Amino acid sequence: MMMTMASSRLLSHHFSSSPSGGTKPFQKGASCTPWSKANGSSCFDPRTAKTGSGRKPSLRIMASDSTSGRKQVEIVYDPDERLNRLADEVDKNMGLSRLSLFSPCKINVFLRITGKREDGFHDLASLFHVISLGDNIKFSLSPTKTKDRLSANVAGVPLDERNLIIKALNLYRKKTGTDNFFWIHLDKKVPTGAGLGGGSSNAATALWAANQFSGCLATEKELQEWSSEIGSDVPFFFSHGAAYCTGRGEVVKNIPRPLPLDLPMVLIKPQEACSTADVYKRFRLDQTSSVDPLVLLSEITQNGISQDVCINDLEPPAFEVLPSLKRLKKRVLAASRGEYNAVLMSGSGSTIVGIGSPEPPSFVYDDDEYKDVFVSDACFLTREENQWYTEPSSPTAYSSNDMATGVGSTFK
């Protein structure tokens, strides 16, 4: 019987220490883990698997007892109880091994360019706000200590050191001396070249994740300061979700929630992207607005969104780079009939945002010129201190061609 017990413990350990990660090593309905794919094996979850008869599997162990002859001992594990308890113990003893995080994007409610810097960059003053459209990123500890491995659900995303996720992980290791490497899967929802800060958010999310795996060696403030080495927009995502940003964008001041979180919006992005470098090449400081950005911030905080306060000094040069973007904004304004509180371009483009309604204007459905535009509803989003952003609901994103055929994709 001692042999039976020993075999039982060995088999339990084999199941519970499988590197499927997460708060439960075995997750009901989970898809193939990186390990099963790497090994060419099929996915197997002992809590949900069934035998050919439709029953959940039992584990049968043959044991020999020298005093009474050969006996057969059947030990049946309840997959919903026994393995869950074992999984809890593994998590306690082994620490975090897998983490899935939401990586939201942002819009610039207003964006003033206030001057040219000696380092060649421009000073800006902007109300940044996180919104509910975002990517999902899964991080799993790599069994090796040599390299991160990144995959993505869409083509064209760089998977090497050019990706800000990898840059962020390299930066964290440099700053802390940790040696954790990761397998990362990026489920990309935010379009690139959209002025929504999707890549910057990915970098901030990767820094946050690396810190969680390392037992939070760094404070949020340190993560925010380090992140400015990756890009000007990255520090913003370590705010509480709404911030007045100055300098190159890296000087971040949290502000009390300026707008209702349930205020809806629609994002419309044509296939063409605006190169930020091209936009700034055409930018002329003498043609910007003269309104004090602090006045804009005060007006929004006190009275909410209106067309007059949603100023973006990068719109004129962006419209020169992409004239079709100017036409799109004009058509949205003309078609809104008061449905939107404001229509604006985010960042350096090429996303047009209508705030006040989640519905796109009808011409986006009907006009062949816009059959391939990206469309998504969204709302404003914030986070609590020491917690990362959580997707409040699943926004729907689609092309206008999808809308015409009744096909949409709800992100989950």
TrEMBL record:
Keywords tagged on the record: ATP-binding, Chloroplast, Isoprene biosynthesis, Kinase, Nucleotide-binding, Plastid, Transferase, Transit peptide
Top EC category: transferase
Localization, UniProt: Plastid, Chloroplast
Gene Ontology cellular component annotations, sorted alphabetically: chloroplast
Pathway(s): Isoprenoid biosynthesis; isopentenyl diphosphate biosynthesis via DXP pathway; isopentenyl diphosphate from 1-deoxy-D-xylulose 5-phosphate: step 3/6
A biological-process GO annotation: terpenoid biosynthetic process
Biased composition, class Polar residues, residue ranges: 33-42
Bias type Low complexity, positions: 7-20
Enzymatic reactions: 4-CDP-2-C-methyl-D-erythritol + ATP = 4-CDP-2-C-methyl-D-erythritol 2-phosphate + ADP + H(+)
Chain positions covered by the region annotation Disordered: 1-66
Pfam families in alphabetical order: GHMP_kinases_N
EC numbers, comma separated: 2.7.1.148
GO molecular function, one term: 4-(cytidine 5'-diphospho)-2-C-methyl-D-erythritol kinase activity
Domain GHMP kinase N-terminal: 163-239
Membership in a protein family: Belongs to the GHMP kinase family. IspE subfamily.
Protein name in the entry: 4-(cytidine 5'-diphospho)-2-C-methyl-D-erythritol kinase
Organism this protein belongs to: Canna indica (Indian-shot)
